[in-house]
Design goal:
It is a single chain. This protein is of the alpha+beta class. The protein has twelve helices and 23 strands. Strands 2, 5, 8, 10, 11, 12, 13 and 14 form an eight-stranded antiparallel sheet that branches. Strand 16 (about 340) and strand 17 (about 350-355) form a beta hairpin. Helix 8 (about 195-210) runs antiparallel to helix 11 and helix 9 packs across helix 10.
Amino acid sequence: MGENKNNNIVLLKCVSQNYEWGKYGSNSTVAKLLKGYAKECSDIIKETTPYAELWMGDHVSAPSKVEYKNKELKLREYIDTVQNEINEKSSQPSSIRGEIVEKRFGNDFPFLFKVLSIRTALSIQAHPDSQLAQLLFKKYPNIYKDPYHKPEIAIATTPFEALCSFRPLSEIQSFIDTIPEFKNCLPNNLIKLDDCKEYLKSIVTSLLKADVLLISNNLKELNNRLNEKREEERDELDRLVLKLYSQYPGDVGVFFAYILNYIVLKPGEALFLGAGEPHAYISGDCVECMAPSDNVVRAGLTPKLKDVDTLGDMLTYRTGRPDLVVPQQRSDLSLNNYHCYQPPVDEFQVEYYHLDDGCKNINVYSSKGPSIVLVYSGNLSIDNKSNQSNNSSLNHLHTGSILFVPANTEYQFILSADSPTVSIYVASVSNRIFNKNNL
């Protein structure tokens, strides 16, 4: 089979973000993936630098790049360049992005794929829906950088702590009644309303608008009181509050431990966060995929801007523990060797593949949209069944290898003889949009 550029699987050079909350140096999975990706990265990994996120995609803040004809092109530039070359040579060219994807998303890359390695808690935050995102971008373009919504999924690769969605109202009321420092920061005339949403909104906005000194003093008293307890007397929530206070002393976000559900995901469990759902990642590693937006409305555990009025109006105020994303299985593979996380959005889904002695190769069904492959651990090769001449560059892949796969490309993962196992994550456009089109 001759060369067919629109089916070329190519290596990506991706960028890390060194946010303060990331794990340091070689303790970070992000740093380990960078080391695996390119030997030259081994010399520049610094043990005192936090490696928080690895970005894979075409977001303007940190676009992935491709080596092509002795040039380093941004992913979008690469796609456009190769697409133009194909168009010039063919009377009926196919689309690298996929025709349905281009109709739905234009030339924008539909998703942003990440790995997070978390040492200290991220801010308590929520993301706007599409309508609000457009409004915020129009009114405050210096704060909200794009007009897009930002649904996201987090798939735990280690035990993963998070705060997410509101606790049942009865739990929150019980904490108000039994945690005096929490109650002291709420108005004396706070009335328990029959409307759950309005009552929760009054609690959240009252906390966020409370006097900074009032919050700081009460958190200090709470911290001192919990520290006076013997270790065996402290419960899980006590330890969480002490941890958050040690990281963000005096920050109102510490009190959100009494408002939001505290969950610990096991490796392989996944959490979907739609618009208006408050959340904060606390510790652990995860693979994350989202719409390609950077719109964040923050509430606490951060020195950054807290947009209290916007946040108060946009939250869903749904109560109860969040539902986890149930992975889908392929009929020809065990759940251990394959599962797919498909949240209720069009932009993305994430598949997990695991090769071992009992399953040394797996055929990957072609997607009608683009994909990004992350070799999370182990060594393998890829057989590009849609373009055999491409395979010489796909023979020695390893931990940290990241690849772009064009639409309508069939390929196979093959376990290397020197690797007992391989774990791979593949982000792609959700099959939902193709099923909607009956294609």
